[in-house]
């Protein structure tokens, strides 16, 4: 019969190690079983990062859009006459008034034509004055003829009356009386002829003066137009605002033809925002909605004034009327960012939008009911945006909510985190 011998220390150590490993395996297996029972096997590495606290605040649903400032009042500057650019006074971006000269042209031919017309007008003026003098002299002569012949008629009438008396007294013969009668008739004819000449003169006088004045007026009109052409050599802004752009070919020595484009002036007082939104967001936009506009870091306010009826490249143009004062950064064609306020509701319960949320459908969420314990509830949603939802029933402010689809947990009524 063999006598039992004591186990070596090494063998005892190995046995203890095996026992410890076995116990650890049992605990690990139990832990995994617990974890599988109360947590999803869906790849979440940090489930607590999906827990969000419901907050009380103002729900604002906004659409972000981009665009530019535009001016309702713009003027295209065009050369009214031919000329060569001799001076350039204003560059794009400069403020201008109605009579601000942008550039100066030179046209020697136009200047010569103006001087020629000015001399022609002086000549026409002198001709009118000379004609008036000549007509006044003729009128005086004809008036004198009328007076003289009228006097002759009166004289002949007196002599004829005297001859009649002498003839009645048979002092003079019948023949001598007839001679007096013939003289009287002759003086009457001269008088009538003088009066007729004066009447005819009065008619021709008016027409001659009218012709001379018409010629003078015509020359004066041509001179005025030529003066306008000379003034057009000074190309002006034509309106108050800012010189928005100028053509690339505008440089000293450049020859411009009549009708050439110079640039564009825009009125800063009539700026509006022209923005573009996605076709999907366009149906939510209504006239009169408030818009916050960011103009190079400075703010302005406006309202929707027009929504284009057509879609271009999956975008819809929206015009915004500026209702506040414009910041100093406002310029035509400057790029802007706009936030269109679709909805604004005060003092509501809000949560980040869960990935499994569908508009118009109640949603199930896990709400914290005890430390590390979450209970599945049906939650009603009111307003919603791309990032936020309004909770109308099922959650109160301060509740911790797990924003994960309950299907990931097998729709268990209670889970432990």
- Note the run of SSEs as H and E: HEEEEEEHHEEEEEEEEEEEEEE
Individual helix count: 3
Rg, Cα atoms, Å: 54 Å
SSE-based structural type: alpha+beta
Number of strands: 20
Provide the helix percentage: 25-40%
Biggest sheet record:
6 strands, antiparallel, barrel
Side by side, the strands of the main sheet go 2-11-14-13-12-15
Q: Give the DSSP E fraction (strand runs of 2 or more residues).
A: 25-35%
| Cα separation of the termini | 62 Å
Average residue-wise pLDDT: 87
Which descriptor suits the 3D outline? Answer: rod-shaped
Describe the structure.
By secondary structure, the chain is α+β, with helices and mostly antiparallel strands. The protein is built from three helices and 20 strands. The strands form three sheets. The protein has a six-stranded antiparallel β-barrel. Strands 3-10-8-5 form a four-stranded antiparallel beta sheet, with no helix packed on it. Strands 7-6-4-9 form a four-stranded antiparallel beta sheet, with no helix packed on it. β17 and β18 form a beta hairpin. α2 packs antiparallel against α3. The longest helix is centred in the N-terminal third of the chain and has 61 residues. The N terminus is likely disordered.
